[in-house]
Amino acid sequence: MRRPKGNKTKKAVLKRFKITGTGKVLRSRAGRRHLAQTKNAKRLRRLGKAAVVDPTDVYRIKQNLPFHH
Predict the structure, then answer these.
(1) Domain enclosing residue 18, as ranges
(2) Which residue, 5, 13, 23, 31, has fewest beta-carbon neighbours within 10 Å?
(3) For residue 45, is it within any domain?
């Protein structure tokens, strides 16, 4: 008899988010991909750092990353 399969990892979600050791969900910031010459260096440095995902979205993201939480 075959075992029922668990939830699959949504690969798009896996590529966009990272879960820390304490369970926080990190995301990259928007606005870094192009037109960088018009943005100052301080702004680009800030955009390079990861941001914590809003708590209202964390549950849905973790649902789509079944083996990563």
Answers:
(1) 11-63
(2) 5
(3) yes
